[in-house]
Amino acid sequence: MAEIYVDVRGETCPVPLVEMRKAVRKAQPGDVIEITGNNAASKKEIPMAADALSLAVISTEEQDGTWTIKIKK
Amino acid sequence: MADKTTIIVQSGDMDKLYSALIVSNGSLAMGMEVSLYFTFWGLLRLKKGGLEKGPLSKMHFLGLGKKMMLGRMKKNNVASLERLMADFKELGGKIIACEMTMDIMGLKRSDLIEDIIDDYGAVGTYIQEARQSAITLFI
Q: Any idea what the CATH number is for the domain that residue B48 is in?
């Protein structure tokens, strides 16, 4: 079970979603993808995309506008 | 209805191509299939070196408006059309070029960015794609 890190700090729509999707495509079942960014809309939309892809969101954290979302494939 | 987005890209304007590619990449990121059907002015953006050449649909001002807009977009870290197109292809997006437009504009396949074009077709090809799509747009 690998952990894959995706850093999209400073990136805006639609790049955070796209980078999340690229990482999910490359991941193996069971891998955890950790995405960090600071685009406010993406914090809401990455869980929406995970839901659309039938993937579980393990955790969401936020500090000073920077969020980290963990998704399990 | 299948989880698919089909867009007719009729406009060659820069801002409208942004709209088309952002909706497309969002659709791909959320697990949908996407087909972009490039026709008329939109097809000119598929000419070699043509992707970033479109004018702004409003306030172009002989290129000055576009330059200002690109400056503001860069400041806000908006991805380039080249980058959006590369992401679109990496996530499996499909591009169809309108053959009738190619005839009208006198464009050969070798004039176009052939390595990103998946198919060449006419209205029937579009309908086949669109009739199975939950999202269809004309941009």
A: 3.40.1260.10
Residue A4 structure tokens: 């894959």
Q: Tell me, yes or no, if B22 comes closer than 8 A to chain A by beta carbon.
A: yes
Residues A11 and B78: their CA atoms lie apart, in Å, by 7
Query: Domain spanning A3-72 has what CATH number?
Result: 3.30.110.40
CA distance A69 to B43: 39
- Is B27 in the A-facing interface, judged by CB distances under 8 Å? no
Query: What distances in angstroms separate CA B106 from CA B11, B39, B100, one per listed residue?
Result: 18, 13, 10
Domain locations along chain A: 3-72
* Candidate from B31, B78, B91 with C-beta closest to A18: B91
Q: CB A25 to CB B29 under 8 A? A: no
pTM (2 decimals)? 0.94
- Hey, what are B92's tokens? 């499996």
For residue range B46-95, list pLDDT tens digits in order. 999 999 999 999 999 999 999 999 999 999 999 999 999 999 999 999 99
Rounded to 5 degrees, φ, ψ at A8 are -120, 30
Nearest by CB: B90 against A11, A12, A22: A22
Q: B-chain residues within 8 Å CB-CB of A10?
A: 77
